[in-house]
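Memo to structure team: turn this sequence into structure tokens by end of day. - J.P.
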Amino acid sequence: MPATAANAMQLEGARGSGWWLPSWASRRIAAGVTDRETPPALLIQQLPPSTQSVSAEQVHGAGIAIIEQAAHAERVIPGCDALMTSMAGVALLIRTADCLPIFFAEPARGIIGLAHAGWRGLTQHLPARMVGAFRHAYQVPAEALEVAIGPAIRACCYDVGLEFESRFPGFVQPEEGRRRCDLIGAAVAQLQQAGVRASRIVDVERCTACEPSQWFSLRREGPATGRLTSLIALRP
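Reply from structure team:
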């Protein structure tokens, strides 16, 4: 079932300086996203100076890269849409403009992940695959994970064709001759089916297409639009 307002988490920050997920901050995890006015470098500069960054190539698939060597830092990892690490001082980055940035954390042990999930990645069950990767790579059970879904296009603005009814059964709603797809609801359902507790899934409830002054949106502005940078890091 989709995340509800009861477990929503507000982003905290200021326009032009980046927006942060505050609930993990006290446990040395930094997770945030740029807005239209924030250059990615400014977000990274708010972390310790020694922080290195690594990005996913983003091929609209379900590939996951595990970052456990310093040699991987400061580069783009090819062929993947998601990243995981237990290394302190490494920032994981993805870029979106309607797709879902999904943040993962096991705060007690300090293990983090970040996924770029568009509709193609969701049809390949990327959120559930991330849960499985935490279990296989780090022996983290699903019930120990905390997950947050950042700004993304929501059902209010995501009109789709008939073919989406078979891709996302139960998450496409006909309305006045249109079909609207709830990608956030589909992602939450996959996470819960994989064993993540509903109380540990939070949704910032920000629609990239609804808020043109704040977020970039491919659906609203076309391919030339900018990209939002999402980041998660373990502070040293």
